[in-house]
Amino acid sequence: MAPSRWLRFATLLAALSLVAAACGGDDGGGEQGGGDDGGNETATIIHGTTDPWQSFAPAGSVDLPSWNVIYNVMETLLTIPPGGDTPEPLLAESCDFDDAQTYTCTLRTGVTFHDGSTFDAEDVKFSFDRNIGIADPEGASSLLASLDEVEVVDDATVTFHLNKPDATWPFMLTVATTAIVPSETYSATEIQDDQEVVGTGRYQVAEFRPGEQVVLEAFDGYWGDPPANGRVIVQLFDTSSALKLALEQGEVDIAYRNMTPTEIDDLRSAEGVAVVEGGGTEIRYLVFNLDQEPFNELAVRQAIAMTVDRQAVADNVYNGTVEPLYSMNPVGLAGHIDAFADEYGAAPDLAGAEAVLGDAGISTPVELEVWWTPSHYGDLSADEYAEIQRSLEESGLFTVNLKSTEWDAYTEAAFTGQYPSYQLGWFPDYPDADNYLASFYASDTFLANGYANDTVDELIATEKGSTDPAERIAAFEEIQRIAAQDVPIVPIWQGKQVAAVREGITDVEQTLDASFIFRYWVISKA
Amino acid sequence: MPKQTTSLRTYALTRLALAVPMFLLLLTLVFLLMRVAPGDPISAALGGRLSQEELQIRREAAGYDRPLIVQYFEYLGDVATGDFGTTISDNRPVTGMIVQNGAATLELTMVAMLIAVLVGIGIGLVAGRYRDTPVDVVGRLFGIVIYAAPIFFLGFLAQLVFGKWLGWLPTSGRASPVVTFELNTPTNLFIVDALIAGDWAALSDILKHLVMPATTLGLVTGGIFIRLVRVNVLQTLQGDYIEAARARGLSERSVVFRHAFKNALVPVITVMGLQFALLLSGAVLTEQTFNWPGLGSELIRYLDNRDYIAVQGIITFFALVVVGMSLLIDFVNAWVDPRVRY
Amino acid sequence: MKTQRRGPQPAAGPTPPVRRAGLFGRMIAPVREASGLPKWILWAGIVITVIFVVLAVFAPLIAPFDFDQYRSVDGARFAKQAAPSSEHPFGTNVQSTDVLSRVIYGSRTALIVVLIAVAFAMMIGVPLGLISGYRGGRMDRVLLLIMDTLFAFPYLLLAIVIAFLLSESIGRGVMSAAISISVIYIPQYYRVVRNHVLSVREEPFVEAARAIGAKPRTIVRRYVFSNVVQSVPVIATLNAADAILTLAALGFLGYGIQPTEAAEWGYDIQRAIADAGAGIWWTGLFPGLAIVLLVTGLTLLGEGLNDVINPVLRRRRLKRVEIPVSEKTT
């Protein structure tokens, strides 16, 4: 009898699954999986994130998640210590400028790679040469534009010959793209397979399931102090809501990168979970195209800067996880001044905006076309720009026409000057004001928004060429003042770094700093 | 004049011959769609960081600016040799990605299909048998309502109820991170791998993660089957041979079970195969909703990144599967029912 | 001898002439003749669909607020993600807009898009099917191949890719959503119409018409088309039901309509999934229920129509047969 046979089979299968599910016990908490979690130093930490990795190759990636892994598995000559903001020695023992275009480093000895080969100056030269030589389209070799040649003086000494004075070079040596790879095992012409990553770092890659998880295990032969844990599993989630539920159910220990403000608020009151924050230097801003109307009018740009309600965006859209930003050089970096607040006031000044427009003879409401992109900067971009539209329109001075398109077409159009104004964000490559200000205000930036100011260009050249911190800071401050008056860009907000952790996880706050290096090795689990 | 029935072999060859242009058509469609759109993978990855000249240099280096025809034939050649290339955004060999994520989708869809078949056939048979009674009404209504509920809505409810409020079940992934790391996965079908390894704790973890997505997808697909099975049962029950069986004095039960149901199900088998395309569509939504690392969610991700090597690979694979399935179904159909052959 | 009276008296006089109903009359005749369960199914479908149509058409009058309105008339902002209350019966969502209003306006979006999509699909699929089926030959085979290929492919993938591309060129509006949805349904109309044409084409009356020299256009219009058109309403209705699901799916995946342009249920549910993790249920439940209700209504309508029109399944209301009693007396 056909149907009843199937029915019986179905019931059997259902029963089997129920039995299996019941027998398995409480496996929701992943930590119980291994048996050796007794001691601190052998603990497994599970980090959930929604940021996918591009590649674990220093020569082949520019994104933060990839660099995260690189920072833990490989090392650079210099690094920014937790909570600090100036480069300190790591693989190098000491480094100095011989002159404005020559930088020499003495290297540490007794360091071995994961595959046993010894670290020496050859590897340094090899790493830099191959990065520039491969020039991977997905890589960051363009950051090394000031490098002319790497000279191997002896086994433990290396000299960098720059083609122009570059005071930011020490910072460059802290960036993941300059991580050192073994010359004996890596190819000089091809990107290394992600399954065979070798470095000198505290962890090595134990397993990599593309698109799902990467597992790092402590490296026994590490030259320095061992990490505070034995293993890190970085698990990728498609959505932050799934990540949040996984955190609440104990499947992950740390949720970091891209939780929404709603979720963070809810986690603050959740049991067994704590929310930790740290200063961040991620920023969002609105770019004006000075070649298009009405943004060619200085008065319009200034009026917008006076009208946009940053606090409303920070409170209503981001629930306070971001701070209003008054300069394109973020808080926390040397040389920061609240230039826009100084120039226009911290709160919106509607009367002032109206006056500015009136003085210039511009009739209101001014029609603005503003572009944004739906997913690259998170789902909240929609809410953010709705909020900006509201504050601009409520003043009665503007009517805002919002448009959006996906990232790929968006960047192509934006950077070829097709959009009158558009949303953008920025992550530092290294925590120095030059990485921001030069990238935005030089006359030939990628923004292609038609802004060119000779004084600013001179100032940029000055700060790049000077090794005197005071001189650089003075230059930075002047650039910010001029930029606030010219308003080619309006800074909107600066984001804090927020992570949610389960009870027993400590020291995550230590590594939430301006460098954006997420140092797994400082994190411990009780 | 009665048509001459062709031999199965002739039919097979003809059908195969037809499959080729179908496949080519799909491939061309895929290629055109991906290439015709503005934008390219370089901009997607580096758009915010480099000048247009830089990007153009890199585009040329990667070959994205060659004439379309050249790229097209290169694409066809690659497909023919099975070389789907390496993804642009994360450097994975495409075939490897298809195997790994394809297995995840396969596991999900197979279990969902099982549930759909059980639900669909079970309720459909009963509803058809007891036509126009409350049982029928409830069955039909259930089928209609469950299909009307979008998968992501059911997913939302499931996550809310079972994930958040009751906390019984996980709402994402195929297994918890530690299990994923520790389980040896030769086939990448986690259930099979856990059984091979005899790891019952892992199996339970895996099943707990599978329950919600598979049930959601299975129920929604089952909703359609209910309707199909029911209609077929109704039509079958009106057939002459049923009358004859009844006239011969066979018990109603025997008539229904032995004759009607069996015959009602034959066309349903083939329809189920056709619903495979529907199942794949549903799988994309399910994977997005439940964070299931299958080909569907990868497709969305690569699409957003304009990684058209990856997208091409995935859709080409889907096209292969679909053409293969429809070929298979047609063969089975023709084998069973000679009237269908050309 | 007196005749025995049986039942009501037959009407005296000649039987009234039978009026041949027009096309429309013939089309809805099965509906009027329906009885029993199919009738209830049909009417349930009609009622639900009509409710949503009313909501869609009169949205500005029915909805308490605008779909993107985030503050009341006196300028006070709505609370963000507030639970259902007397002021906001369905609560508010993450952008501080009223969920009830968005649900109502969402029905407007859904019906507009679906109407356009189904109309497009019909306008292209039906004529193609007619011509293809009637003429046959190579064109028919090529078209059939293309349509079969499109039909066999997972519909959502096709819709996603097309929506994605259209969004690059004409932006993410109602038109691009409607077009991407219509493309995937063209093969359905094509197939059904073509099959019908193939079977009708061999009928004797068509052959006769050809024999007396009727032009193909006339034959198609008068005989084939009117026979074929009976099945189209059912397909169109079930199509519409499916199209709403597809639109919601596109909206959920992010390839739907620009959120500032119109309210769309699928997009709202996508935003709501993040809320589910925080235990906020109202932002997703109501749009979802709206989809379920509308699609169920349309499906019931389609199924109901099918039940009453499809001769295989049709059960006519049995009229009492009146046998005229003879007045003759012996």
Structural class of chain B: mainly alpha
Low-confidence stretches of chain B: none
- Shape label of chain B: globular
Put simply, the count of helices of chain C is 12
Please report the number of helical segments of chain B.
14
Helicity level of chain C, as a percent range? Answer: 55-70%
Radius of gyration of chain C: 26 Å
Oligomer designation: heterotrimer
SSE order of chain B, one letter for each helix or strand: HHHHHHHHHHHHHH
Could you give the order of the helices and strands of chain C?
Answer: HHHHHHHHHHHH
Number of strands of chain C: 0
Portion of residues in beta strands of chain C equals under 5%
Give a verbal description of the structure:
The complex is a heterotrimer of chains A (526), B (342) and C (330). Chain A has 15 helices and 19 strands. Chain A has helices at 2-23, 64-73, 121-134, 169-172, 240-248, 261-268, 298-307, 310-317, 339-344, 350-359, 380-394, 407-414, 433-441, 454-465, 469-486, and strands at 44-49, 78-79, 88-89, 92-99, 102-107, 147-154, 157-162, 203-209, 213-218, 231-236, 254-256, 273-288, 322-324, 366-372, 398-404, 421-426, 489-502, 505-506, 524-525. The longest helix of chain A is centred in the first third of the chain and has 22 residues, at 2-23. Chain A is globular and about 70 Å long. Chain B is mostly helical and 342 residues long. In chain B, 77% of the residues lie in helices and 0% in strands. Chain B contains 14 helices and no strands. Chain B has helices at 8-36, 41-46, 52-62, 68-81, 94-129, 134-148, 151-165, 177-182, 190-197, 200-237, 240-247, 252-290, 295-304, 308-336. The mean pLDDT of chain B is 80. Chain C has 330 residues and is mainly α. Chain C is built from 12 helices and no strands. In chain C, α4 (99-135) packs parallel to α7. The longest helix of chain C is centred in the middle third of the chain and has 37 residues, at 99-135. Chains in contact: A-B, A-C, B-C. Chains A and B meet through α1, β1, β8, α5 and α12 of A and α2, α3, α5, α7 and α8 of B.
